[in-house]
Structure formats: structure tokens, C-alpha cells
Specification:
Elements lengths: L6 H5 L3 H19 L10 H10 L2 H21 L9 H46 L3 E6 L4 E4 L1 H7 L8 H9 L2 E2 L11 H6 L5 E7 L8 E11 L5 E10 L1 H49 L3 H28 L8 H16 L2 E7 L4 E2 L1 H20 L5 E9 L2 E8 L14 H12 L3 E6 L5 E7 L4 E2 L5
Parallel strand pairs: 7-9
Antiparallel strand pairs: 1-2, 1-6, 3-4, 4-5, 5-6, 8-13, 9-10, 10-12, 11-12
Amino acid sequence: MRFTQPTHLRFIFPPVAVGLAWVVCIGVLDWVTGPELALSAFYLPGISLVAWYSSRGQTLAVAFCAALAWLFAELSFQLDYSSPFIPYWNAGIRLSFFVITALLTFEVRSRQRTEKTLREQDSILRSILDSMGDGVVVVAGDGTIIAFNPAASKLFGENPIGSKAIKWAIEIENRLIEAPSPVAQRPSFLRLAVDSQLPGYHELILSGSHEGGARVLGLTSQPLLGSHVATCGVVMVFADLTARRSVEKRIAEASEREQRRIGQDLHDGVCQHLVGVAFAAGSLQNNLESRFLDSEAAAAGEIASLINDAIREARNLAHGLYPAGLEEGIEFALRTLASTTQERAGVVSTANIIIGNVKIDPISAVHLYRIAQECVSNACRHGAAKTITISLKNQGGLLKLTVADDGNGIDNARSGKSGIGLNLMHHRAALMGGNLEIESYTGHGTRVVCNLPATIALPPSAA
């Protein structure tokens, strides 16, 4: 490692030159004062100067020059030793002393530079953590919280740095509402996260956050890697999704309103206009038949038949955009979906609705209906199902919509990431604060379950 000396020393007084000059001066002084005074220690300042500002090689070279200067001064005295090797032995001892001093000085300087760099990096990392909008919690390998940025304090309250992560996780779990992520519904899922046993992304709903009100949080948990890629802790990032979920929900509501408007306009406008055209075509056919124009009458009848087909298609499209029966409640709408499917597709469809007196807010009812509608459509078009069962139950405050069929199944259903329809179903479930589970095996049908927290359910008086 090579250190950069200060600018004024680098160009005007190079450290190596200064160190060598110092060694030469002490060597001359050692020669002048004679053998009675020991000046070995006075060589060290020059050696230390070079060690502090220059490289290890230059430092060792100056240390060797210092030992050599002492040896020349010692040999010039022509002392009577019992052995001629004694001066060289003493020079070797002094050289070892100089080298050890040089290396220690160099190591001290190296550690000082390293510590300074680490302090600067630590300051930068802390600045980054403090400026992040997402809450960051870092847990060490011994289960102690070692980082808890201000954003995390806003979400969870008091800063628990230095305390055990398990204790903190238990306190936070007591404040959670039903979590949208399936795995997060486990009572101890946050404890699994702090133990590095729950990597990946999950969502949860925190009630009574430090800033007030329930918050939708996205948790990204990843292991903290140390040397040799060994896990030495866990990093958890909590993103506040409340505002985004609110915006997405408003966009979905606006989209549903627009679809309903288009469906109603299509039903009341285009369909009625086509009905009028169909009557006109039928009247034309009768007039042509009364004049014994059989070929022309047949053509008019064919036109009337095509118009009636267009009316049926337009009405089906209108019913898809404007779900029939939602005004009467989700129970009636799902039963209507089952009966309509059986009538139009020839698939045996049943609806089992058991939610008691609990009412569901209109927007969530639309999302539930759209999820069921997409499942039924997939079962009929792609699954070649013969029977479809739709059920909506209230189990201990948790609403569960289940659509099961005996069709061909979906190869990639477990991932839930293939196809626009599946992605939309997952998105609708997330907007309601719930989750979507898909179980499917090729040739053995598909079972889609949408679990929703009780927060979307309203008492009868609030409906």
C-alpha cells in the first residue's frame, strides 16, 4: 500500500529525501561523538517520517541505510572486539530494531487510514439510511437490531437499536391486521423474517402506526452477507404502500364506473337501436313475402337473423361491462353469474353464498365479482370444465371467495404470474387488502381462493 503525502511535502521536501538526510546527519553525529554515546534511537525519527508518508519498500530502504550508517561509524572507531563479527552482529540487531519500528509505524498509519475510510463510509451509509423514505431494519447475526432508520421510527415508533429483534417482532405482530401475503398470515411470520427464514417480498397491514391510521406495508427481507458470503444477519425494508394503494383503488373505481357507463349505454342505446333495425328487417321480409318475392324475402330474413345475433353479442358484452345483479348485492350477482354460465355455456354451475348479515362495500363487491367472472371465463374457454362451483363464505370475519372447476387445469397456476387475467386477479385482491391462491394440476381442475380481511365488510347499518 502506498500513501500520498501532503502536497507541500511531496514537491518541496520529499519524505524519502528528508528521511535519508536525517539518517546521514545522525550518522555523522554518531561518528563525531565517538563510541561512548549511543545515538541509535535518534535514527528513528527519520525512519518514522518515511514510514508515515511513503511506501513500505522505501521505509525498509531507509531503515537499512540507518543501520549501514551506524555500522560505518562503528567500524571507523577501530575498537578491539573479541571477535571481528561483533560489529556486524550489532548492526544486524539495530537493523532488526529499525525494521520493526518502521513496520509498526507503517501499520499504525495504515490502520489509521483504514479507520478513517471506514468512518467516512459509515457516515455515508448512515446518511443514505436517514434519507431513505422506506423503513430499514438491520438485524445482526446474534439477533440484535443494529440499524433502525428514521422512516422505520415513523412507522413503528420508538427506536429499538440494541434490543433483541425477536421481542420487537412480537410487539409489531400484535399490531398487524390480516396480511395480504399468504405466507404473512402465519402468526410468527415477522419472527421468521428476523431469523432470515422468510426471504423475498410480502405485504402486511399495520394498524395504529406511529403516524396514525392503518398502513399497508411491503416487506422485502434479504440475508445480510458477511465474509465468504456467509449469512451474518438480515436486512428488512418496509415500503409504505398506503398512498399507492389508495391511488390504485381510486383508478380502479374510476375504471369500473366507466365500464358500467359504457355497458349501460351499450345496452340502452346500441342494443335498442339494433332491436329497431331487426323489427324493420322483419317487416321488410313480410312485405316481400306478400309480393311473392321469395328470394328477396329470404335475404331480408337472413339480415334480420344476423341483426339478432348482433343484439345477443352486444347484450352479452354489455352484461360483461355492467355486471347484472350487483345493485341487489354480491350474493345475487354471483348466483346470476352461475345461472347465466350454465345457460349460455352449458356448464353445470352452482353458487354457494354463506356470509350471514355481513354486507360488503360496493367497490370490493365489484372486485369480487370480476375475480369470479375471470375464473369462470377461464374454466369455460381454456379449461373445458364440465362443472363450476362458486362459493363465498364468512369464516370468523375472513371472507373467502372460492371458484373451483374440473377442467384441464393451469400448468403455471402456482406462480400466479402468467397471463393478464391472472395478474389482474392478483391485483384486485391486493387492492382489497387480500391475497389470491391458485391450486391447479394439469388434468385435475383448478381451485382459486381469494382471502379478504374483514375490513372490507360493513355491518348492515353501514351498508
